[in-house]
Amino acid sequence: MTAAQWLLVLGWAGVTLYALLGGADFGGGFWDMLAGDARRGHSQRRLIESSIGPVWEANHVWLIFVIVLFWTCFPTVFAAVASTLYIPLTLVALGIIARGAAFAFRKASTELWQQRLFGGGFALSSVLTPFFLGTVAGGVASGRVPPGLAAGDLLTSWWNPTSVLAGLLAIGSTAYLAAVFLTGDARRSGEAGLAEAFRRRALVTAAVTGAIMLGGILILRDDAPRLYSGLTGRALPVVVISAVAGLASLALLITRRYALTRVTAALAVAAVLWGWALAQYPMLLPPDVTIERAAASPSVLHATLGVVIAGMIVLVPSLLWLYSLFQRPVPR
Amino acid sequence: MPHLLAAAATPADLFAAREQMALSLGWHIILACFGVGMPALTVFAEWRGLRTGNDDYIRLAHRWAKVMGVLFAVGAVSGTILSFEMGVLWPGLMSVYGQVIGLPFALEGFAFFIEAVFLGIYLYAWDRLPPRRHVLTGLPVCVAGVASAFFVVSANSWMNQPRGFDLVNGTVTRVRPWAAMFNPAMPMETLHMILAAFMVAGFGVASVYAAGMLRGRRDRYHRLGFLVPFVTAAVVTPFQIVVGDSLARMLASHQPPKLAAIEGLNHTGSHVPISVGGVYLDGRMRYALRVPDGLSLLVGYRPGTVVQGLDDVPPADRPPINPVHLGFQSMVAIGFGLLVLGAWFALSWWRRRDLPRSRWFLRFAAVAGIASVVALEMGWVTTEVGRQPWIVWRHQRTADAVNPAPGLWAGLVAVLLVYVVLTVATVYVLNRLRTGPVGAPQEAES
């Protein structure tokens, strides 16, 4: 494999981790929104807050990692995507600000009306941000971003059937991941009622998201034929893995084996991302900008690869410690 | 629509993009300073508390940790916006030079990652870790914060002293990313920013307690809350002035148009006076106090030192004079004011082991936080506006870097609204944290 390919794999791993970890946090916001009024939703919101609190900032850095890796290693593609899709990307940026700030503010505020206000901001932006991120992915995947600065259509590049589908899928999968994750967290903290509530939600979102995905295949056939033929051709095994993992999660949820459900649910979502990558490879911007054409100078790629590997050696144990620390009960 | 986009962005869109960047960066930089400086103050307070058993230190550490959590959250998201804006607003820069300046940003990414991980642990694991180990988890936060500032500002210093690549027919080749990062402006510019961060965080936190002491709250808790950050910032200030001086001196040899703009200096020559105050009107500096030979002496230690003026720069390549001149003047004035404040304190402490008795000391200390933020912003105005019309000095004009898409104005308006709301909410929440009862921040606290 070339350095550019390695970096693409590492970058995509970053995208996957952001979708899984950051995605579960966004989904937390989704359930926060639907938790009901302040009194009824209190215990759910408290669970969501305690699950997200210590980890969301670290989860969120994957996005920055991906952006930086992208502009360093594939600068012209980064510029093309950012300039053509500047409207949804600006909305994503605003959503990220509103979300992070509102979440931190809600924790710090004591009065009900403030908690409601900040909670509303947190919840709304938790839903809109993944949607717009999804539309960006849909725009690239359906080949609507040509090379060059702002060379694509500023509106239809992200407001089109594939983009809207990807946006809805993003909301669905983040909600699903969060529900699965929170089910386990609720059971571990001994709140059986909450665990049941989130289990029900996980089942419903799994069904809804699965249905959107199945229907989406028809949309892709019309709107993004290249992607469709990739997904049903070379990437088919990965797509099948996603479907199987999704069905297995349903079975595990029904039998209440929550720890294992986390693994299969993550696999189902990750496989969608890798299926897309495989279907589109070796194009970065379909139909004709390849990885080799878009890659930065070899000296840059090698230096970046070195930095990423060295960085991971420090980062991975730290992250594992963070997650394991807050998955254990508090020592008395 | 695409055929419309072939044209360059309108001047109004360029202006909107610059204002949006200035607003986002100017906002983030304040939070970033607290992200760099506050962990050290907080960890120090916690460590002293554990060492001495003094409960006031522990209470300070708890409260500062909570404030730090809010500031870090807002700083993290406002910093994320900047990475979006690099592409959304300046795709021309990223398309050509993204690979040249990518390395420090990648390193910064990891530093920030480590900071976020250990901050998560530090903030939320007070009851999960033994006290000594808990203090230790704060150290990576301190180190990573400083490292982040170093990496990001080294990318900015490259924009002032671009190198580490060859240009062949407008295409970047033979990129040497480490040479780009270790450019001549890097050592002093990064140091200047890191020291600024400690000044902003130190004077900023101290000013809150100074205001409290003015209102009569003079217990040991408030005294310590004032002393720890104030002494930190006051010790840093003289070093900052030395570093700033050598940074300005470097401009004479490395970026003369910026120095000429700082001084409003029209003509190249020797025996150049230094201008204090004044405004640049009708093509010359008016109402300034002039120190004969001052600038020549500062730049080369000899009155005969030749300093380049604006006449050496084609008119189209000259930065706007007044923002740069006034920005620099106010930064330096505030810097010396803070130096005097620190000296006042040092004198009193040396003589009687106590704060100065005059209430004026506390009054000045109470505004020192705002003043240091103003100085910080003015410093960034000096360096960023002073580089114009270049985004990459002598290589790429800002007008060629901007997104050619229409409608950037709408983005500016949206960002402006979001930042207004964010500012109001942040100030409100911080004010609540200032007065509310505070224990250790815990994840199950709400």
UniProtKB/TrEMBL annotation, chain A:
Its GO CC terms are: cytochrome complex; plasma membrane
Q: Which domain of life is it from?
A: Bacteria
Instruction: Write down the membrane topology.
Output: Multi-pass membrane protein
InterPro entries tied to this protein: Cyt-d_oxidase_su2
Instruction: Tell me if Membrane is a UniProt keyword of this record.
Output: yes
Annotated localization: Cell membrane
- Keyword field: Cell membrane, Membrane, Transmembrane, Transmembrane helix
Q: Where are the transmembrane segments?
A: 6-34, 55-79, 117-142, 162-182, 202-220, 235-253, 260-279, 299-323
One example of a Gene Ontology biological process annotation: aerobic electron transport chain
Any one GO molecular function term: electron transfer activity
Q: Give the protein family.
A: Belongs to the cytochrome ubiquinol oxidase subunit 2 family.
Q: Kindly provide the name given to this protein in its UniProt entry.
A: Cytochrome bd-I ubiquinol oxidase subunit 2 apoprotein
Annotated organism of origin? Actinoallomurus bryophytorum
UniProtKB/TrEMBL annotation, chain B:
Q: Repressor: is it a keyword of this entry?
A: no
InterPro entries with a match to the protein in the record? Cyt-d_ubiquinol_oxidase_su_1
Q: What is its main location?
A: membrane
What membrane topology does this protein have? Multi-pass membrane protein
GO biological process entries:
aerobic electron transport chain
Q: Name one GO cellular component term.
A: cytochrome complex
Alphabetically sorted, this entry's keywords are: Cell membrane, Electron transport, Heme, Iron, Membrane, Metal-binding, Transmembrane, Transmembrane helix, Transport
Q: Which Pfam families has this protein been placed in?
A: Cyt_bd_oxida_I
Q: Show the stretches that span the lipid bilayer.
A: 26-47, 67-90, 96-124, 136-159, 191-212, 224-243, 326-348, 360-381, 408-430
GO MF annotations in UniProt: electron transfer activity; heme binding; metal ion binding; oxidoreductase activity, acting on diphenols and related substances as donors, oxygen as acceptor
Q: Which protein family is named in the record?
A: Belongs to the cytochrome ubiquinol oxidase subunit 1 family.
Q: What is this protein called?
A: Cytochrome bd-I ubiquinol oxidase subunit 1 apoprotein
